[in-house]
Amino acid sequence: PRTTPALLYLDAITVAFDGFRALNKLSFTIAPGEMRAIIGPNGAGKTTMMDVVTGKTKPDEGDVVFDGSHDLSSMDETQIATLGIGRKFQKPTVFESHTVEDNLRLALKADRRPRATLFWRDSSEERDRLDAILTTIRMTPDRGRLAGALSHGQKQWLEIGMLLAQEPKLLLVDEPVAGMTDAETMQTAELLREINRERSVVVVEHDMAFVRELGVKVTCLHEGSVIAEGSIDQVSENQRVVEVYLGR
Ligand code: ADP
């Protein structure tokens, strides 16, 4: 098996649906501790890329290696999650009739035992981790509120908190600021930067103001391949990127 210093290594990944290449020799790497923004127009292959990394879709060709030597193409979704890859989908799926705190408690307990219930007593370690996650997602004052009563932005943060309960090494986040207010968008950038102090993050995003605010390296996909990589300024001045976004 291939070994690499990268946390996530994709090399010449091809995924075809009925002969159409959603990913076409896609290659990029994420370093340990890095946060990366992935951009690209609709249909560029961003979702398919995340499906490959999480094991939902198997590549037809190419290598996908996690944390040095784990060949993800030979693992199922559960094994990959256990290795330390968490995925935040666009739509939040919190338990609306539970409080913020109970949503997080369930996530913390499920991390230990899949069929845990809220009736189990919290260990002191669980209480500490709960408090730490509430601080990270800035929801300590909201801990007793029902999740169903939260704003859209707060639900997104709560779901990110639930993923943090699994202590992923790599967090994949799909369009976190879609539907958020400007204030929530800026707070999300801050939140992700804080999370990035402890773990690697890949953010797929359309909102360029948000990507600029994140201030991290950007990879632009188009037709299943990388067409540009660098700072947001470098990428947004790249001629191919300009053409692709203007639809020429
Ligand atoms: P993005 O997330 O960047 O919008 P996707 O990864 O969703 O792009 O899609 C890339 C391309 O692959 C699109 O043209 C899409 O229509 C196609 N595609 C994605 N999933 C499937 C599928 N299950 N069957 C057929 N075509 C698909």
Question: What is the strand and helix layout of this fold?
Answer:
Layout: E1 8-17, E2 20-30, E3 35-39, H1 46-53, E4 61-66, E5 70-71, H2 77-83, E6 85-88, H3 100-112, H4 124-136, H5 152-164, E7 170-174, H6 182-195, E8 200-204, H7 208-214, E9 217-222, E10 225-230, H8 232-237, H9 239-246
Parallel strand pairs: 3-8, 3-9, 6-7, 7-8
Antiparallel strand pairs: 1-2, 1-4, 4-5, 9-10
CATH topology of the domain at 1-83 and 216-248, what is it called?
Rossmann fold
Cα shape: globular
Cofactors, ions, other ligands: adenosine-5'-diphosphate
Query: Mean of the pLDDT scores?
Result: 93
Q: How are strands sequenced across the largest beta sheet?
A: 6-7-8-3-9-10
The helix count comes to 9
Order of helical and strand elements: EEEHEEHEHHHEHEHEEHH
Assigned CATH architecture of the domain at 1-83 and 216-248: 3-Layer(aba) Sandwich
Alpha-beta classification: alpha/beta
- Helicity range of the residues? 25-40%
Number of strands: 10
Q: So, the CATH homologous superfamily of the domain at 1-83 and 216-248?
A: P-loop containing nucleotide triphosphate hydrolases
